[in-house]
Amino acid sequence: MQTTQQIADKAAALMPGLIGDLEKLVSIPSVAFPGYPPEPVMEMAEQALAKFRDVGFTNAQLMEVPTGYPPIYGEITGPEGSPVVMLYGHYDVQPAPPEQGWTTDPWTPTRQADGRIYGRGAADDKGGLAIHLGTLQIFEGKPPCTIRLMVEGMEETASNLEPFVDAHPDLFDCDLFIVCDMGNLRVGEPVLTTALRGDVACIATVRTLQHPLHSGLFGGAAPDAMMALARLLATLVDDEGTVAVPGVTTGEWDGAEFSPEDLRSSADLLEGSTIVGAGPVASRLWANPSINAIGVDMTSIAGSSNVLVPEARAKISMRIVPGAEPETELDALVRHLEANVPWGAEIEVERTKEAPGFKCQTDGPGYAAAREALEEAYGKPVAYAGSGGSIPLLRKLQEAAPRAEFILWGPEDVAAARIHASDESVDPSEIEKMIVAQALLIQLLAERE
Ligand SMILES: [Zn+2]
């Protein structure tokens, strides 16, 4: 077995090569969303496959899927009877349209004075792939555990991995599942992500009139649909911004705190904007629901005239507490919408999404080893954090590998990485430390077997 110092020295020596690999991968616009060209996504799949073959997954291949981009699967068999560890990541990225306000070209990886590398996917999740590549190189392709690799190509869009898991549950059987698609709250301060909120959504259509009406002749007596919808949306939260829908599950957070200052800097609130909700920020983000209107259909300003609008629609998204049942949470939201629409307006609610959250089991031996490895790699105590984002796939994996423990970590520090937004970036020091942590974890598991 290698000492922490040996592993850290190796990781440091690997970094220039890994940064080169990362920059090459970031320059490929592997956006798997519909309407984006498929060639770069396939090029990315091939490039990532080649890199993983180079580091020891000699049998890795692009798996056949009925639709969409292929996941990469590979396996390195460890010593007889050693634990099975699965490394997860994804090679597709979010789009990076100019209207997001990028200050550098998203597909030209750029190292800036702060030491970070900027570009779409630098953190999410090509940085995660760099960590996996580095981890394997620490063991020179011969890890002390059996290592399975799953790199999907459609994580950011309508993923095809759930049906793939259903079709090949045997491939996902493992003792420990490492999802390297998360991050610390701040660079250099290690956290394990223990809980993810779920996500439900619906579209509410409000109608008040049979057709548009002259607003001068009828305004003030006849109701318009947009104002009715606005009043309805306003009932979803109280004056502070806390969810005010009866029957929606709330919770409490007992892990790391995320300060109002952290929130301000990572969310880039406008100076005058207040932070909404009540209670500790971490509790609002990770242990309580939130409701947002994420789209509205009504007459556009360009097409508007002095008429009362007969129909307006809003798409409403609600993040739900980890562990809560999406169906019953959405039931509560729909009931509230139907009961609170003002002025006798007609309302129709279409349910569009029911994705569960996730809670890690934190009392198993794999989790203890991960904690120890992370603490050792960073030289600091580990805190628990939640994440507002959801990964519905995790529930599916839990079914396929019921004995597996789940470790959620990675290079995407919350304070500065700006994943999915403009100027996404990664701090190379996080990649380096996470390589050390993953290598130590794999060693610890092998030793304790
Ligand atoms: Zn991701």
Description of the molecule:
The chain has 449 residues and is of the alpha+beta class. Helices cover 33% and strands 20% of the residues. The strands form five sheets. A six-stranded mixed β-sheet has the order 1-2-6-3-7-17, with helices on one face. A four-stranded antiparallel β-sheet has the order 11-13-9-14. A three-stranded antiparallel β-sheet has the order 4-5-18. Helix 1 packs antiparallel against helix 3 (126-138) and helix 1 crosses helix 12 (428-448). The two termini are 14 Å apart. The model has no long low-confidence stretch (mean pLDDT 95). The structure holds zinc ion.
Blueprint of the fold:
Elements: H1 4-26, H2 38-54, E1 61-62, E2 72-76, E3 84-90, E4 110-111, E5 117-118, H3 126-138, E6 146-152, H4 161-167, E7 176-180, E8 191-196, E9 198-207, E10 213-214, H5 215-218, H6 225-234, H7 260-267, H8 281-286, E11 290-297, E12 307-308, E13 311-320, H9 326-340, E14 346-355, E15 358-359, H10 365-378, E16 383-387, H11 393-400, E17 405-409, E18 425-426, H12 428-448
Parallel strand pairs: 3-6, 3-7, 7-17, 8-16
Antiparallel strand pairs: 1-2, 2-6, 4-5, 5-18, 8-15, 9-13, 9-14, 10-12, 11-13
This protein binds zinc ion (ZN).
What are the main properties of this structure?
elongated, 33% helix, 18 strands, binds zinc ion, six-stranded mixed β-sheet, alpha+beta, four-stranded antiparallel β-sheet, 12 helices, 449 residues
